[in-house]
Amino acid sequence: MADKNAPKKPGKSGDAREERLKAALKANMARRKAQAKARATPNDKAGKDEG
């Protein structure tokens, strides 16, 4: 009976792992995009703070 349960777990965990990786990649890309946007306009923020 242990043999029947063994193949099911890797399949499900593989799908779960893939979903976690997709979510992590999406979050990482969003974070990088936000960082790039923040770096692209540092002068605007500095100007507002100084003025």
Annotation field: number of helices: 2
> Mind telling me the C-alpha Rg?
22 Å
Which strand-content bin applies to the residues? under 5%
Derived structural class:
mainly alpha
Residue runs with pLDDT of under 50 for 5 or more positions:
none
Number of strands: 0
Major β-sheet profile: none
Mean pLDDT: 78
The coarse overall form would be rod-shaped
Topology pattern, helix = H, strand = E: HH
What distance separates the N and C termini?
Answer: 73 Å
The portion of residues assigned to helices is: over 70%
Region (Disordered): 1-51
Biased composition (Basic and acidic residues): 1-22
Structure write-up:
By secondary structure, the chain is an all-alpha fold. Helices cover 94% and strands 0% of the residues. It is built from two helices and no strands. The radius of gyration is 22 Å and the shape is rod-shaped. 0% of the residues are buried. The mean pLDDT is 78.
Annotate the secondary structure layout.
Blueprint: H1 2-40, H2 42-50
Biased composition (Basic and acidic residues): 1-22
Region (Disordered): 1-51
